[in-house]
Design brief:
- It is a single chain.
- The protein contains three helices and eight strands, in the order ααββββββαββ.
- A hairpin with a 4-residue loop joins strand 4 (86-93) and strand 5 (98-102).
- An eight-stranded antiparallel β-sheet has the order 1-2-3-4-5-6-7-8.
- With 140 residues, it is of the alpha+beta class.
């Protein structure tokens, strides 16, 4: 009788914990607010969709990642002269630009001008996107 009572008590505790964790997971605001928080940001970064040109054959193609929802992008890029310095990366709009990860770590793509790229070949450009000094892409 005591074993049965202990077994039932254990089952009740386990089911109560499982139910509580499901309620917490479904009740978290993260699932709905991340899109809402990106709403104003992606309106600006949506204007970045298209092809951007770097130096010596480097490029950046930005497209909307429709499957992931508003504020999500696919960044196809050749970001270095070596063949392995290319790929397609998933990005997300933030207040600062588009945040994405690639082999060399987390990156932030932000608006700038030719001077912000740090490259003399792009100095006179006005409409650019910059990852870091020495890596930028511009439109004519």
């Amino acid at each position: 009788m005591i074993k049965t009572a202990l077994a039932l008590s254990t089952l009740l505790l386990i089911s109560g914990c499982a139910q509580n964790s499901n309620t917490t997971a479904s009740g978290t605001p993260d699932s709905g607010t991340s899109t809402e928080q990106n709403q104003p940001h992606h309106q600006e970064t949506d204007q970045w969709v298209g092809r951007w040109t770097g130096v010596e054959g480097l490029f950046l193609d930005i497209s909307k990642n429709e499957a992931a929802g508003p504020g999500h992008y696919l960044l196809e890029m050749q970001y270095g002269l070596d063949a392995d310095q290319s790929g397609t990366f998933e990005g997300q709009a933030t207040a600062e630009g588009i945040r994405f990860n690639r082999e060399d770590g987390q990156q932030l793509l932000r608006a700038g001008d030719g001077e912000a790229t740090g490259m003399k070949w792009l100095l006179e450009k006005e409409d650019c996107l910059v990852v870091k000094t020495g890596e930028g892409y511009c439109r004519d």
